[in-house]
């Protein structure tokens, strides 16, 4: 049973069962996403993280259980109403060829547009603010497919920000990026939660970055939530073994106190040329 978060949940999943025609994936998931926090969902490949995000965002209908957005069943709200409150960036999004950054970011405004009433000024302000926040304005007229992975990912985040929802779900926004670019993106997302009061739920792969930036971690395996709580509470060697089958020691960052995992290579896998101690007689090492 997940522990109750301190802040009000904006989005909750209650006893969720969901999957695809050929396959059941979520098997009784209970989850509460707390307001103004950065929650990170972790789990091995195929554990159901993307399926859970899609179910929470109303892209996928659960076969049992329900999702509540601000206390109301999300399936009883219409698509536009949901899109005005909740933005989602799916895993590995792709843009139509030749689409410019400005056009992509502008797509975030669709939920706010109506045939008979269009607020072009408000749209332009939202697009400008989103591009400035993510620092993509310099290449606004360039084609999205001609950008580096990190630049492109910032454009997708700008698109979600232009939607002006205070609840944002991002599925693996940092995968395949250099470590520095991942850190820059996480700093940006963390500021959204902690300085601008947005509520974020992210799927991440890097365990140590997740532990460093998350207010709450949720760990999944085989369509179930194994544990959730603060990184200090749940980022333990026992959970890393139980969820990821990973042998690791968990240490503490001396500066921030965040837990860090250090995988422990099995005997034969360790580098052979490393001296056992500083006093070793190097002539003995062949
Ligand atoms: N569209 C789909 N149709 C059928 N099975 C799917 C589909 N998408 C994902 N799955 C299966 O559902 C399981 C969970 O997938 P997913 O939620 O994408 O996991 P994760 O995001 O944790 O890697 C996997 O076994 C995957 O193969
Ligand atoms: Mg996934």
From TrEMBL:
Transmembrane segments: none annotated. It holds the Pfam family ABC_tran. One of its GO terms (cellular component) is plasma membrane. GO terms for biological process: iron ion transport. SMART domains: AAA (SM00382). It is found in: Cell membrane. Residues 11-247 form the ABC transporter domain. Residues 257-286 are annotated as: Disordered. Residues 263-279 have a biased composition (Low complexity). It comes from the Bacteria. Keywords: ATP-binding, Cell membrane, Ion transport, Iron, Iron transport, Membrane, Nucleotide-binding, Transport. GO terms for molecular function: ATP binding; ATP hydrolysis activity. Belongs to the ABC transporter superfamily. This is ABC transporter ATP-binding protein. The lineage of its organism: Bacteria, Pseudomonadati, Pseudomonadota, Gammaproteobacteria, Oceanospirillales.
């Amino acid at each position: 049973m997940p522990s109750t978060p301190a802040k009000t949940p904006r989005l909750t999943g209650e006893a969720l069962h969901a999957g695809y025609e050929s396959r059941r994936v979520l098997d009784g998931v209970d989850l509460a996403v707390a307001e103004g926090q950065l929650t990170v969902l972790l789990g091995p490949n195929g554990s159901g993280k993307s399926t859970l995000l899609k179910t929470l965002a109303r892209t996928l209908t659960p076969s049992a259980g329900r999702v509540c957005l601000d206390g109301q069943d999300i399936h009883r709200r219409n698509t536009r109403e949901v899109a005005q409150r909740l933005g989602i960036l799916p895993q590995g999004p792709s843009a139509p060829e030749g689409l410019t950054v400005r056009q992509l970011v502008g797509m975030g405004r669709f939920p706010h547009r109506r045939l008979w009433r269009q607020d072009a000024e408000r749209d332009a302000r939202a697009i400008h603010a989103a591009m400035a926040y993510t620092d993509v304005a310099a290449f606004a007229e360039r084609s999205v497919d001609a950008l580096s992975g990190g630049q492109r990912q910032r454009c997708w985040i700008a698109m979600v920000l232009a939607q002006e929802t205070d609840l944002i779900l991002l599925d693996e926004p940092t995968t395949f990026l250099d470590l520095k670019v991942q850190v820059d993106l996480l700093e940006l997302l963390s500021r959204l939660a902690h300085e601008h009061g947005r509520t974020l739920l992210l799927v991440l792969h890097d365990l140590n970055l997740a532990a460093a930036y998350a207010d709450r971690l949720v760990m999944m395996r085989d369509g179930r939530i194994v544990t959730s709580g603060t990184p200090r509470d749940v980022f333990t060697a026992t959970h890393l073994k139980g969820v990821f089958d990973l042998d690791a020691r968990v240490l503490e960052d001396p500066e921030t106190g965040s837990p860090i995992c250090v995988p422990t290579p099995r005997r034969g896998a360790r580098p052979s040329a490393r001296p056992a101690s500083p006093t070793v007689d190097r002539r003995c090492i062949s």
